[in-house]
Hints:
Layout: E1 10-18, H1 25-34, E2 40-41, E3 54-55, H2 63-66, H3 78-94, E4 107-112, H4 118-131, H5 148-157, E5 163-166, H6 172-185, E6 191-198, H7 202-210, E7 234-242, H8 243-248, E8 255-264, H9 277-290, E9 299-301, H10 308-322, E10 331-332, H11 335-338, H12 345-359, E11 361-362, E12 385-386, E13 391-398, E14 402-409
Parallel strand pairs: 4-5, 4-6, 9-10, 9-13
Antiparallel strand pairs: 1-7, 1-8, 2-3, 6-7, 8-14, 11-12, 13-14
Helix pairs in contact: 1-12, 3-5, 6-12, 9-10
Amino acid sequence: MENITENERVVITGMGTVNAIAGDPLEFAAALKDGSCGIGPVTRFDTTAFRTHNGAEVKDFHPRALLPPEFSLKRVSRADAFALVAAFQALSQAGLYPVPESLRERTGTVIGGGAGGLPEAEAFYQDYLRRGGGRGRFSRLATVACAAHANAIATQFGLYGPKATIMTACSSGATAIGLGRDLIRTDAAEAMIVGGAEPLCRVTFASFNALQAVDPGYCRPFSGNRAGLTLGEGAGILILESLAGARARGAAILGEVLGYGVTCDSHHMTAPDTGASGAVRAIRAALADAGIPPDAVDYINAHGTATPPNDLMETRAIKAVFGPRAGRIPVSSTKSMHGHTLGASGALEAVVSVLAITERFIPPTIHCETPDPECDLDYVTTGARSGTPGIVLSNSFAFGGNNTAVVFGCWRDEGRGRG
């Protein structure tokens, strides 16, 4: 990693987000600092029959008012719209909207997803039943495809570079960032729009309720009385560029993707390996890829779902990797504020990680009020802290044992490392 070139170094020049506590990155930073909670009663569908009635919804979302007038929203799902708005924010911040003609063949898209257009499919099926069958407007199902988010971004912004969709459950958004970085480093692209999007829908809500993996109240990561996650929705998007390309056009640089690691547990469809071997290997691989020792990490944005086995597993993984120093590294789970956005969570928390660096703070873990003797790290439970994290580790540990860890670094013009 010492001899890495400017064409191989991958920097972040823009970010965008839509989530339950904010409509853009600046609002998001303020909400994180305030410890805002976006969890409340779900209004998009009837939750009467379920264990919990709470979710982290995006409220008052009007994409037509948030996107350029020339954009077509025909056959665009709610999740597609989340992705488009976040991508527009990110490209605008990067100074790449509209994407220059000279860059369109060298700009690609990798998006992580989950439920995709399922809310629209659910609405179609309900209409179908009310009509008593019939042909219906099956074109309404065009947004159900898993690739719809990436397709919408590439089409609306006129991009002709590499395009891919990642489906690795709750690590999808994080893995999308890693793949986007690799495409730049191998010169398959000069810039990449990467991230994830996820909507709340009945099928997902029912599934997690059936698994008894949701808290009837609020998710309480790492708390001794934690009882499950809270489902959320939204999108997180980052613009990645080669350092050489960003410098050539005079772009403002927000941070750098230093490295990432991907592993699998090969253990169980939903339960994590309590021995944490897959998570440990992912974190160590990310640090090795970044070329930094464990001692260099200043903050860990945890996966922190608030399910009892997952939080315990992640705590064990952090202890295994960081040893005696583990208890001195601030760790927090922002899912306590914006909910678990599944396919978008790794990307949304990547935005959190970069904001922590650029805005100089450590976000809190709210609702964590009861000590757990087995979860005994510094989970930042008494509000946000001021600080200057130079290197941030973001963890995403998904169903099926799909583990991804990403290392982000602050930007300093004279080279890699801490700011």
